[in-house]
Amino acid sequence: MPPPTHGAEYERLCDSRNKKKDWSQWGPYLAERQWGTIREDYSDDGETWDYFTHDHARSRAYRWGEDGLLGFCDKRCRLCFSVVLWNAKDSILKERLFGLTGNEGNHGEDVKEQYFYLDSTPTHSYMKSLYKYPQQAFPYKQLVEENKRRTKEEGEFEILDT
Questions:
Q1: What is the 3-state secondary structure (H, E, C) of 13-51?
Q2: Sign of dihedral through CA atoms 40, 143, 96, 152?
Q3: CA-to-CA distance for 80 and 69, rounded, in angstroms?
Q4: Both ends of the chain: CA-CA distance in Å?
Q5: How many CB atoms lie within 10 A of CB 18?
Q6: Separation between Cα atoms, residue 12 and residue 6, nearest integer Å
Q7: pLDDT per residue as tens digits for the range 55-110
Q8: Does residue 3 lie within any of the structural domains?
Q9: Does residue 101 fall inside a structural domain?
Q10: Alpha-carbon gap, residue 40 to 109, rounded angstroms
Q11: How many structural domains comprise the chain?
């Protein structure tokens, strides 16, 4: 879709281009997943996938960034905001996307969530997204175990299969 040529969003884009207002100061710059990345690997053996798992992310600080569920932050990622959910059935809060590391997934690394970015203006003055959170306990263990069990020839075991 081409940028607007009139209206409020056009004015915001002009203000930003002319440096009257910095509409790029805030946006959806927050990483969806920081755990299990090469940036956070300080292992002795170079096993990035195993060094910083989803389970570790609840109790360890990241060195090079942050992550969050449908989050936004300033462009330097110094002040971050994101959604935290709890369905009263899980033992942990839902603060970040869950997924499999490269060694856990039968086809490598894979996020096992249902989330969608639906709309956004170019300046991010409006953003709309959808996250589908299970009303039963989130099947963390089942997703890991079943995908580890499957071969590369088999399909992936997804959250909708649980």
A1: HHHHHCCCCCCCCEECCCECCCCCCHHHCCCCCCCHHHH
A2: positive
A3: 11
A4: 37
A5: 8
A6: 10
A7: 888 888 888 889 999 999 999 999 999 999 999 999 999 999 998 888 888 888 88
A8: no
A9: yes
A10: 16
A11: 1
* Beta bridge mates, 128: 119
Q: Which of residues 151 and 2 earns the better pLDDT score?
A: 151
Name the band, by pLDDT with cuts 50, 70 and 90, for residue 11: very high
In a domain, 18, yes or no: no
Across 117-134, average pLDDT: 95
Domain holding 51, by residue range, is: 25-161
Q: What's the CA gap between 67 and 77, in Å, rounded?
A: 10
CA 45 to chain centre: 27
Q: Pairing between strand 26-27 and 99-100?
A: unpaired
Determine, yes or no, domain membership for 10. no
Buried b / exposed e over 41-50, threshold 16 CB at 10 Å, is eeeeeeebbe
Query: What pLDDT was estimated at residue 6?
Result: 83
100 neighbors 142 (Cβ within 8 angstroms): no
